[in-house]
Amino acid sequence: TAILKGPEDKVNLTCSHTVSSYDMILWYQQSAQNTALKLIGYVRFTSPTVEDSFKGRFDVSGDAAANKMAYLHFPKVTEAEDSAVYFCAASEAQCFTIPSLLYKNPL
């Protein structure tokens, strides 16, 4: 689906699927300037995360567990790079580990 919006316009994209074991939905951007897929953010179960490089420009929300839906919100289109192709993908929820929490810091 093509969406044409001007500067300062709001954009809301919706992604849904029907695979019962997939509890994670990810959003990616592919711009004309850089054809690599860049991870914008994701919803893991009901917890949204936006990557640092996209914070303030995009919001992610939804319920990937029960409703199998996620939303990508552009509060306002502000940059030429926002003109891009956006993809969503669903997967089984991954386990994340924060390495710094695995070790006790000596006092």
Brief characterization of the structure:
With 107 residues, the chain is mainly beta. 0% of the residues lie in helices and 41% in strands.
Would you give an account of this structure?
- This protein is 0% helix and 41% strand.
- It has no helices and 7 strands.
- It has 107 residues and is mainly β.
- The strands form 2 sheets. It has a 4-stranded antiparallel beta sheet with strand order 4-3-2-7, with no helix packed on it. The protein has a 3-stranded antiparallel beta sheet with strand order 1-6-5, with no helix packed on it.
- Strand 3 and strand 4 (47-50) form a beta hairpin.
- It comes from Oncorhynchus mykiss (Rainbow trout).
- This is Ig-like domain-containing protein.
What is the element layout, followed by pairings?
Blueprint: E1 11-16, E2 24-31, E3 38-44, E4 47-50, E5 59-63, E6 69-74, E7 84-91
Order of helices and strands: EEEEEEE
Shape descriptor reads globular
SS elements, strand count? 7
Helix content range of the residues, please?
Answer: under 10%
- Radius of gyration based on Cα positions: 16 Å
**What portion of residues belong to β-strands?**
35-45%
Mean pLDDT: 84
Class per helix and strand makeup: mainly beta
Widest sheet: strand ordering: 4-3-2-7
